[in-house]
Model the fold of this input.
Amino acid sequence: MAVKFANTPGFFAPMRFEAQVDDCIVEGELPAGLRGTFYRSCADRRFPPLYPHDTPYNSDGAVDLFRFYDGNVDFRSRYVKTPRYLAERAAHKPLFGLYRNRFTSDPAVRNLSHNTANTTPIVHGGMLFSMKEESLPTRLDPYTLETIGEWDFGGTLKSTSFTAHPKQDPLTGELIAFAYEAKGDCTDDLAVFVFDQDAQLTNEIWFKSPVVSMMHDMAITASHVILPTTGMVTSMQRLQNGELHWAYDPAQPAYVAIVPRKGTASDVRWFKGTPDQAMLVHTTNAWSEGNKVIMEAPVAGDNFHPYFLRVDGTKSNPSSYYPTMRRWTFDLDSDKDSWEEEILFGGIKVTSFSRIDDRFLTQPFRYSYMLMNDPSLPINRDFADTLAVRVSNAWFRFDHHTGAIEKFSAGETHGMSEPQFVPRHKGAPEGDGYLLGVVNDFREQRSELVIVDATDLAAGAIAKVKLPFRLHMQVHGWWVAD
Done:
């Protein structure tokens, strides 16, 4: 069967091939101490969607790596060979239906894993995983990127799903994770997992959610896990009707569970907010001060996902509902089920792609880094208007102590991916290091990895790792030092 994709923007058309480039061309000077591997989880369809209104989140997963050693950089890209990927490759056609809706898939594969493994790469216990939140983690070889298979942590993981955003505690080496819809589609079961530094399960807590909602990310302190719901809701009726898994409910309040890491289900405490606090997709960081749990994150008051309709079937205008950076304080000594909110950085409109120096996870911190859409920066409309997607064109550094903002732009014909912070050396102070990430050059129709001094974004790129082709659309990245 001839494969045909319709209405796909040129630069972001599916890549559909695997690649390897050793000894990449480098423009500028690589920092001498930059040794390690940058992994990217990406979304890239091998076949057209069965339904034109499906979401990009339902694309096949691919993982890229850039390995830095002795002043050299090697690149490798491989699809994640999930059961879904293998079934469609054998059939030479698409078989899987709408995002997270088995009822819309070909009957021959409805009981097969629908895992795309396309969201977040992590390394823990010497193992590389690529995550997708409705499925178990998929393990890959960290050097070759060949797929090993779905991973249940030696048979100890009893949930049917696993977050795409587990957190590594830099002080204890533990991996903290959770699962929602943990006993299957539309179930109200939540679970929190604690794994030691060798990926052995040491604690699990099962409890119920007040609403079946998308819960994409989490935050942790030294003693607690913070689990926010979003305004995205679902039901078995939606799935049986052949609809996308999620719809946005503008009346849905925000709920946040505060879970002691060493606790039990009886220790879980739920807090309730308002609908204009419900769109929290990614967190920035959290920490504890006495019996207060403090979290900072980009939060929106409405749906900024253009792919999901409201529950009444109408569209949202995502350009009108950008998040703002907010600080939420939960007082565990209070009987109130609400929290205090402070809007940071003057309420500037941000995105949800927020990163920090991961060595300061669970601790008070100063700097965060974000992928941004900055209309004040020059954009070459001849290229941008042909892409049919909104282009992120800057990395911002936010100073959470002073409120200062610094920015980096790769140029008027470039779009950017989420930045990754890399410390200058193991003992460097917070924020002393580099930002690196993939930038797409729309003029030359190719991609490059850009490295910037995180203490001086305005100075521009230190080095660029040039590739002779364009790359997949990245979701999230992960750095592992030698």
In short: The chain has a mean pLDDT of 95.
